[in-house]
Amino acid sequence: MFEHILVPVDGSKTSMLAVSKAAALAKTFGSAVTAVSVIDPYPFTGVGADFVYGQAQYAHAAAAQANAALDAARNAMTEAGVPVSTVVGEGQAVHDGILRAQQSVGADLIVMGSHGRRGLQRLVLGSVTQRVLGAVHVPVLVVRD
User: Fold this and answer.
1) Which pLDDT belongs to residue 84?
2) Verdict on whether the full-model pTM lies above 0.85
3) What is each CA distance from 5 to 1, 19, 52, 119, in whole angstroms?
4) Residues 92, 41: contact at Cβ < 8 Å?
5) Is 144 helix (H, G, I), strand (E, B) or coil?
6) Which of 91, 129, 119 is nearest to 7 (CA)?
7) What's the DSSP call for residue 30?
8) Which partner for 15 in 111, 113, 123, 138 could form a disulfide, CB atoms 3.0-4.6 Å apart?
9) What's the rounded Cα separation, in Å, for the pair 24 and 82?
10) 38 touches 87 (CB < 8 A)
11) Mean pLDDT score, 98-105
């Protein structure tokens, strides 16, 4: 039914629940799986040497966090007996990076976690899952804790 599953991960408990669901689906359907962790764009703008230094530190820390999330997903998939490929994604925003990864790997299902933020917290922090749901043309399985 599903040939390729994309699982966005950020290292959170919710994203690891999505990894578990994706592993079960992949075993059932014999699907390929790709885990993606998207690096947020550098959140500050400025000019000068301090800006460049801060941007380099941010890029290093963000890449380390993305790789740690992907390692955790890889380990969970391996434990479940499911082969997985991993990708560090980039985009103008996290949801954009997920969309690019989906198109790049040709995924026909996205399994992703949602933190379930509501009210002011959702307004301030946004909802990556909601933005993905509004932009993709493939099914999305939303996993909540």
Assistant:
1) 98
2) yes
3) 11, 10, 37, 31
4) yes
5) strand
6) 129
7) T
8) 113
9) 9
10) no
11) 96
